[in-house]
Amino acid sequence: MRKFLTLLFISLVIYSPVKGFEDLKSDSTKVNSRALFSKHNMARLILPAPFIVTGIAMYGNPGERFQQLRTNYFTNFSTRTDEFLRFSPTLLLYTLKAAGVESRSSWERMILTNAIAGVLMVGSVQSLKMIIKEPRPDGSESNGFPSGHSALAFVGATMVHHEYGLTNSPWYSVAAYSLASVTAALRVLNNSHYMQDVIMGAGMGIMATEAGYMISGAIYGERGLLRGSRENARKGVPVNGYSFTGGSLEYVRILNTPEIDGELYNTSWGTAANLESIFYNPSAKQRVADLGIHLSANANTAMAQKSGGNESDKTSINWLTLSIGPALSLKAGNIMRFGVTAEAGYSRLILNNNTINEKSSSGFYTGASLFCERELIDGVIFRIFARSRNSIHSRPIPDINSLSFGGTMSISLY
Predict the structure, then answer these.
(1) What are phi and psi of 361, to 5 degrees?
(2) How far is CA 25 from the centre of its chain?
(3) pLDDT at 283
(4) Collapsed DSSP state (helix, strand, coil) of residue 312
(5) Diameter of the chain by CA atoms?
(6) How far apart are CA 301 and CA 72, in angstroms?
(7) What is the pLDDT of residue 20?
């Protein structure tokens, strides 16, 4: 049965491009090179650019710092789920199509686009792996950069985004990109990749898919398009705030000098991962400032060394926060939106390499952030922010006051 399904899929992938080219030949139509390099198609490269630039910028020590999160929170984590989860966005794509949910493209056009994207992704990712030869964090092989699992997952997720998220509901995009993001996260948690590997892989998967749509669009033109896209429905910066859900990475600095067991500790730059959402009322009266609700879950880690001590006097400071609070977003002309959040909630501090029964304590959390954001293209929001966090605990557990900087790519929900 498995062999039959595999052969069926390969047959579809091969048959679709062949039939498409036969139809083009019968219509005496050639690939439109002008359409291939149109202004609209060139704009498609905006979406993968932040991932690729970030992956390159984080290469080496900046990205390897995020491995502290894995080491301190998931030291012995191991699963094979990512081996199967990488296919889930693509499975979602074809399951929705088979179930009768109307997509942007016909079967032939969609499979051709997917096939082109797959070939481009595999070729580019494997080429970089062979050229760069980056050792994996677990030392198993020297082919870590970029992540192929992440690239494959984001090819499928970007296909779902175009076929269903931009034509039916953004929640299809949220579901697909969530599956792809979990795949990427599991590669890091399994100690198979550094953070820069999976970010670069995501960018290359998205870029290969955008290129696939560019090429198939030049081949097919308007043929095989079943449903119009919402991507050009909103021009510029909207009056209402961006409602979104997504994840972010942060560099964090502890501002105070924690006192542990009567000793003062000096801290270095740490890292954090954050899941957050902001919801505004889409039916509210349009105005320059929009008030919404902000939800956030955050994991932080930083290394600390006893004042005047040596390397053996180091310990990790790990703290978790869950918060809720208001968000205020203001439109700044037609450039971007600026805003602030106020946060309050629960904090959990864990010392000494995340040993739960040793120096852990619950407390109260307050914080605030400043952010700016703009929709890049196709309902994808780019945000950068600075956030102040204050975790307050009962003595003798130290309070933690920190400042963090980060960015995120999120899906607009309205």
Answers:
(1) -160, 145
(2) 40
(3) 78
(4) helix
(5) 83
(6) 7
(7) 43
Is residue 280 within 8 A of residue 289, CB to CB? The reply is no
| CA-angle at 380, arms to 376 and 383, nearest 5° | 70
Residue 333 phi, psi dihedral angles, 5° rounding: 60, -140
Taking the C-alpha atoms of residue 91 and residue 175, their distance in angstroms, rounded to an integer, is 12
- For residue 42, how many other CB atoms are within 10 A of its CB? 11
Joined tokens for residue 132: 């760069």
Angle CA 18–19–21, to nearest 5: 65
Q: The tokens of 36 are what? A: 């291939």
Question: What is d(CA 89, CA 136) in angstroms, rounded to the nearest whole number?
Answer: 25
pLDDT at 31: 54
| Residue pointed to by tokens 């939800």 | 295
pLDDT of amino acid 332 = 86
SS3 content of the chain, % helix, strand, coil (to 5): 40, 30, 30
Q: Which of 353, 404, 348, 408 is nearest to 381 (CA)?
A: 408
> Is the Cα dihedral 292, 293, 297, 301 positive or negative?
positive
CA distances from 326 to 260, 362, 364 (A): 34, 23, 17
Per-residue DSSP letters for 266-287?
EE--EEEEEEEEEE--TTSPP-
Low-confidence ranges of the chain (pLDDT < 70): 1-37, 230-235, 286-287, 352-359
Beta partners for residue 123, in sequence order: none
Model pLDDT, residue 137 = 95
DSSP-assigned letters across all residues of 159-227? HHIIIIITTT-HHHHHHHHHHHHHHHHHHHHTTS--HHHHHHHHHHHHHHHHHHHHHHHHHHTTTTB-S
Coil, strand or helix: which one is 310?
Answer: coil
- Are β-strands 289-306 and 263-267 bridged in parallel, bridged antiparallel, or unpaired? antiparallel
Global pTM? Answer: 0.87
Contact between residue 394 and residue 374 where contact means Cβ atoms under 8 Å apart: no
Distance CA 147, CA 85 (A): 14
Closest CA to 102 of 152, 172, 51, 50: 172
Show the tokens assigned to 247.
């994840």
Token code pair at residue 131: 């050229």
SS3 state at 235: coil
Both tokens of residue 333? 């002309």
Model pLDDT, residue 107: 96
> Torsion angle, CA of 126/45/53/299, rounded to 10 degrees?
-90
